[in-house]
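Section 5: illustrative case.
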């Protein structure tokens, strides 16, 4: 179990690009740098889901998860008593550190480029594994242990998918992440989604003439990231 005092930032990047080519990585780095510059910060934990991928789920994970559900969503500390074989033990060893990281964080920072209108597979693998039955429910009250956790999602899209744009209905990224963290119990006022749009302007001919719009979107994203990191 990870034990920390003070403010803790869990910083997760999911872009397959290097920082030189990744807008989401540059924006999360801006957040983390601004956050660390403030005094009294306890820990900055960085997880790069591309460099260190989270393994996909196996039948042992799902079997163990169903057994836990039948017991009434027991807390993580009691899961080992329900493990029946080495494969399940291995799955739990891969899963528990991710759960501990998430529970220990005061702020969760996610860098999320749009891949095929949604989130990268690297992030989906993390979501699938970390969302273990009962891990985030108070065993006494049933309330979410993440209700006070602040989640900052920094999204980057090559095209334009914002409200009022022709491709607004292609954005499955924003509603998915809003629904996911809301279902985990993160309070709506603690969930912040920031998008830098038209990041492929200058590369794709069909986006020619939108350089000013793209620059404005990036500037607004940088300002929002900086403001949230300073809180």
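Designed sequence:
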């Amino acid at each position: 179990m990870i034990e920390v005092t003070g403010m803790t930032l869990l910083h997760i990047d999911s872009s397959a690009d290097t920082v030189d080519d990744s807008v989401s990585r540059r924006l999360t780095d801006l957040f983390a740098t601004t956050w660390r510059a403030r005094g009294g910060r306890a820990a900055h934990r960085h997880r790069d889901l591309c460099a260190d991928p989270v393994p996909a789920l196996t039948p042992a994970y799902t079997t163990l998860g169903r057994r836990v559900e039948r017991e009434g969503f027991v807390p993580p500390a009691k899961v080992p008593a329900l493990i029946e074989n080495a494969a399940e033990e291995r799955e739990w060893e891969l899963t528990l550190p991710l759960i501990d990281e998430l529970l220990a964080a005061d702020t969760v920072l996610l860098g999320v480029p749009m891949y095929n209108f949604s989130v990268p597979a690297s992030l989906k693998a993390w979501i699938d594994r970390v969302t273990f039955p009962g891990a985030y429910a108070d065993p006494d009250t049933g309330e979410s242990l993440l209700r006070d956790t602040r989640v900052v999602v920094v999204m980057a899209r090559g095209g334009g998918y914002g409200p009022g744009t022709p491709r607004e209905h292609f954005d499955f990224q924003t509603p998915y992440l809003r629904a996911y963290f809301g279902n985990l119990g993160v309070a709506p006022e603690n969930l912040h989604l920031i998008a830098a749009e038209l990041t492929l302007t200058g590369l794709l001919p069909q986006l020619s003439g939108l350089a000013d719009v793209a620059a404005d979107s990036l500037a607004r994203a940088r300002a929002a990231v900086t403001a949230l990191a300073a809180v």
